[in-house]
């Protein structure tokens, strides 16, 4: 099969059975029935089987030893429950990805694979991937990413005192990087002592198996509640100061190949394996972008379609010669409007991912197409770019990014746990097993 790179993490793992083509459902040989109820949505046995089939093929292709069937079913159903809960919350809160945004995203995926959209579609279909289902999977990925940005990333607050404290106490840490994998056994927000005891026993069982030499990726697929469970729990290369404090303190004491004790946090229980360690290199310069924008916020009063239409009119005026700054002063609903939309010099990570991706794709003087972010709809214009040597400003920016990354995973897991707890869930598979 021809390898296809995507811009979204889960596309490489599986296609959602909720979005499978009608022919996929028609091939089911066994009677269907409900295995879980999530809010007002049901998950059926055949949907679970469809997801499992795709994942089993993927794990086999990767050479990952397969966990017991019932463990894999339990983990997959929990993943489907969490996805369903997030999609339901997105719908209720008015979060949508329209076809124009979806087409742009798929165009970027095709371009990243050095293909035209037609070539990309043909390749997918030759590989047996149903293109309409693939489109809807990408739409789902975009919704999940935007939900995380809106509900978690955009609400993180990093104070100047936190940055000062980081630079004073951790800024001089070495540049070594650590590749780790983990298992998370998520605890309910208001877990009873009996639930915690049962969860601890399950964690100790996984730890015993890991230390006896069983494949860690297989154990992750069988036990972990983390979003990366079917990727072996591998979170990639990180510096210590880019890890949650619990993980950083633990990893610093491990040698490559070693496995931690069972760890406890507010999120639940954790097992960490240090896969490898290497020396890191601190960047010596940073690319900065000076940009300005016009923002139309979306809310109960202004729909996405209305905001997009208003910005299309503004963009047409600018393209036909009207001054961007003047249009920003008139129409932008951002605090930068009085300055003609000027955002000043921006470092990598200063803006949300959707905005930064669109900005980075522009040449100086170019005006973007309409860009959607958790804050609304934007027009962006890049004024100039420059490379800056590492300075105190760079150190503070790096500190801010590290603190943000450290907080983000904890905040996201807390948000998922709270969403799970406030969503009505009836897991009928647990009764079967």
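Q: What amino acid sequence fits the structure above?
A:
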């Amino acid at each position: 099969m021809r390898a296809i790179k995507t811009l979204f993490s889960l596309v490489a793992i599986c296609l959602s059975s909720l979005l499978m083509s009608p022919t996929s459902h028609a091939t089911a040989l066994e009677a269907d029935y409900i295995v879980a109820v999530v809010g007002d949505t049901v998950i059926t046995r055949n949907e679970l089987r469809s997801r499992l089939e795709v994942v089993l093929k993927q794990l086999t292709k990767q050479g990952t030893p397969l966990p017991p069937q019932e463990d894999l079913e339990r983990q997959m159903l929990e993943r489907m429950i969490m996805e369903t809960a997030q999609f339901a919350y997105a719908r209720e809160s008015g979060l949508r990805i329209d076809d124009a945004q979806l087409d742009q995203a798929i165009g970027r995926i095709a371009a990243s694979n050095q293909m035209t959209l037609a070539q990309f579609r043909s390749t997918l279909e030759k590989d047996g991937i149903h293109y309409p289902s693939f489109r809807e999977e990408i739409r789902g990925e975009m919704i999940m990413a935007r939900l995380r940005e809106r509900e978690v990333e955009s609400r993180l607050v990093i104070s100047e005192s936190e940055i000062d404290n980081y630079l004073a106490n951790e800024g001089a840490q070495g540049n070594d990087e650590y590749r780790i994998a983990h298992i998370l056994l998520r605890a309910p927000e208001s877990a009873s002592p009996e639930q915690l005891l049962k969860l601890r026993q399950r964690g100790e069982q996984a730890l015993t198996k890991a230390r006896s030499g069983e494949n860690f990726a297989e154990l992750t697929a069988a036990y972990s509640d983390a979003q990366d469970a079917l990727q072996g729990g591998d979170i990639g290369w990180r510096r210590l100061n880019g890890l949650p404090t619990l993980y950083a303190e633990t990893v610093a004491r491990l040698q490559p190949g070693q496995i931690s004790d069972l760890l406890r946090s507010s999120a639940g229980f954790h097992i960490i394996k240090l896969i490898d360690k290497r020396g890191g290199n601190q960047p010596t310069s940073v690319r900065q972008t000076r940009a300005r924008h016009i923002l139309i916020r979306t809310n109960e009063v202004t729909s996405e379609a209305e905001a997009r239409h208003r910005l299309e009119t503004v963009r047409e005026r600018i393209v036909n010669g009207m001054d961007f700054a003047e249009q920003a002063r008139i129409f932008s609903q951002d605090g930068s409007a009085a300055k003609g939309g000027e955002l000043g010099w921006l470092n990598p990570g200063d803006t949300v991912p959707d905005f930064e991706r669109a900005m980075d794709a522009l040449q100086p003087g170019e005006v973007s197409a309409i860009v959607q972010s958790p804050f609304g709809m934007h027009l962006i214009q890049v004024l100039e770019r420059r490379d800056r040597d590492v300075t105190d400003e760079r150190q503070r920016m790096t500190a801010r990014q590290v603190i943000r990354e450290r907080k983000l995973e904890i905040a996201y897991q807390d948000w998922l746990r709270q969403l799970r707890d406030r969503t009505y869930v009836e897991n009928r598979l647990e009764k079967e097993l």
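Q: And what stands out in the fold?
A: Residues 273 and 354 are 33 Å apart (CA to CA).
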